[in-house]
Amino acid sequence: MKIPSDAIIPDDKLNRYLLVPREQDDKSKFLAKAGFTADNPEQLKLAIRQLADQVEAIEDRNNQYGIFYRVEGQLTGVNNSNLSVITIWLNRKVDDKFQFITLKPKKE
After folding, report:
1. Whose CA, among 5, 86, 106, 107, lies 20 to 30 Å from 25?
2. What's the average model confidence in pLDDT over 13-32?
């Protein structure tokens, strides 16, 4: 199954988490390798959406919030380099909408 095109990718998830340097669980340095920075969050959102459009989502687990899905593949960067990533999505039980939860480097 594919993540629906109307899935929510919260701006705060990009601007206040993924693209912000952190002491623990920092993903900004990883994303910067492909040219994604706090100056271009829309480019990251577009790349996440493109990955979700191209790759099948695999059901991962479920809990009281809904069903979690995993989409693994290559995130194409602003500088045309690729990052191997795993994205996590939630099909929310409360309203049946899909929402982007997080992204992490895929360990090869």
Report:
1. 5
2. 95
Spatial neighbors of 76 by CB under 8 A, at least 6 apart, are 34, 47, 50, 82
User: Edge-to-edge strand order for the sheet containing 66-76?
Assistant: 58-63, 66-76, 82-92, 98-105
Q: What is the pLDDT of residues 50-70, one digit of tens each?
A: 999 999 999 999 999 999 999
- Cβ–Cβ contacts within 10 Å for residue 26, how many? 12
Report residue 11 as tokens. 């701006």
How far apart CA 36 and CA 41 sit, in angstroms, is 7
Closest CA to 52 of 98, 87, 8, 104: 87
